[in-house]
Specification:
The chain has 16 helices and 13 strands. It is an alpha/beta fold and about 375 residues long. Strand 9, helix 10 (about 250-255) and strand 10 (about 260-265) form a beta-alpha-beta unit. Helix 5 (about 120-130) runs antiparallel to helix 6.
Amino acid sequence: MVLYLTYNDQPSGIYWSQVTDVVAHLNSLGEERVRLLALVSPRSFWKTRKAIKKHAPTVLVLPMVPTMQRWRMNSHILAWACRMLRPSGIMARGPFATWMALRMRDRGLVGKVGFDARGAYGAEWEEYRIVDDDALIAQVRPTEKEALEKSDIRLAVSNALVANWQKQFGYRSLEHVVVPCTLGTAAAQDAGSSLTDREALGLSAEDVVLVYAGSVAGWQSFSLLEEILGAVLMEQPLVKVLFLSRSAFGIDALAAKFPGRVLRRWVDAADVPALLAACDHGLLVREDSITNRVASPTKFAEYLLAGLPVLISPHIGDYGGFVLRECAGTCVGAGTDIPDLHRTDADTRMHMRALALEHFSKAAHEAAYQKLMHVLGTPAA
């Protein structure tokens, strides 16, 4: 049995598609069983436990030691779980979880450890101050380095992340696989099955609708997006923008500047695909930072699955090259001349959906997942 360990991750659409769906997919590959172990905040513990169990009935959800400053103490909780479950290996999401898993290997409680790396953690914490704690931020980069150097196998979300490992940490191993952030299983199965009536959104047949889905967190670079959208709205009168996000000052300011052309909705995650499919182009614009250079935003695959070509910054993970190679949208940036945008036709939508399923379904990465299971399911020599 292999444990999939997460630490201090909150239930969300990302968690369902990148954790619980992945565990379910790994369990579909063969005889080696994978069980999710989630260490979560004691705050709202029972609510969090219920939410995760709804998606992963066999999950073991345990309260973590309160406050992230004491994150190392969670190794005692993990040791208890390993003695009870006797896993052959642990796939650990992020550097903190991997540090704990490595301690289990040191104690002989597991044979192998995998590092599930979702980004450049040290850079992200330093660039965007994930927590306002200099001492904790200073621990991330060396913990990431140890996780990278001592793991038996690594999962990277982009080739750009592997290149960053080579540059920042002198990484030379070939024991890694690259799997981008994949589509949620339910989303992939329902591809192209839902559509929102454009008239219900106040849109006409001539409107060219750009859509932005997500938060306005620091790494989302809203000021850059606002600059690019301002230029497009000024120069292309048929363009409208739909924000599927919470209210924010930048959105309100843009709406005031372009009355009737900037719309905002905040809906349940289950309703997002239908709204996306009613639009014409997805927006994925982010500033040039290390965090964004190695990223694999789930939203990219979700835009494609909805049939939308993507307006994207060229430096986001592996996606700039993918867009150019597969004719999946347009690379844009500050000062870029954006070509005239048009309604997306049926053939283009079909092409985008095919790209999403071919490159971003979990089935498309079967060989990588099989390698992970082979390494983590093999007892140590």
